[in-house]
Design brief:
Blueprint (H helix, E strand, L loop, with lengths): L8 H17 L10 E5 L3 E7 L8 E6 L2 E8 L17 E8 L10 E5 L2 E7 L15
Antiparallel strand pairs: 1-2, 2-7, 3-4, 4-5, 6-7
């Protein structure tokens, strides 16, 4: 006897999006895609992104439906009337979308930016935290 499974196209799309995100995250960082580290502690999922040369007011962080979006605009500071001799640092927008695969809450989320590194801390929901189960002798 086989069970019938209901096809859910939204679940299939979400699975495909997460697979694509894991694929792209495995590639070397390119311009427009800042390098990121994602790790998990007992209390939170933490994302760290390298954003050198970006002013804090040019960073946007958004979390929606399990996806964290980081967007930053780098605008090189040049005094008025300056003449360019070499221009290697250009104005650029960096965007990174990261699948967060643990139940986290946007409430209580924190973002800080120090020394060119953005850190976003997303607290885990109570359901996602590890539970200790006592063992009773029988």
């Amino acid at each position: 006897m086989s069970a019938l499974l209901r096809w859910d196209p939204l679940r299939e799309i979400a699975t495909l999006q997460r697979s694509a995100a894991r694929f792209w995250d495995g590639l070397p960082s390119a311009e427009g895609r800042p390098a990121v580290d994602v790790y998990e502690t007992a209390e939170a999922v933490v994302v760290r992104a390298d954003l050198p040369g970006v002013a804090a007011d040019q960073i946007e962080v958004q979390f929606e439906d399990g996806w964290l979006t980081l967007r930053a605009t780098r605008q090189p500071a040049v005094p008025d009337g300056a003449t360019w001799h070499l221009r290697g640092v250009r104005e650029a927008e960096a965007v990174r979308v990261i699948a967060i695969e643990r139940p986290v809450s946007a409430e209580g989320a924190e973002a800080s930016y120090t020394g060119g590194v953005l850190q976003v801390r997303l607290p885990k929901t109570e359901a996602a935290k590890a539970k200790q189960i006592p063992v009773q002798a029988g």
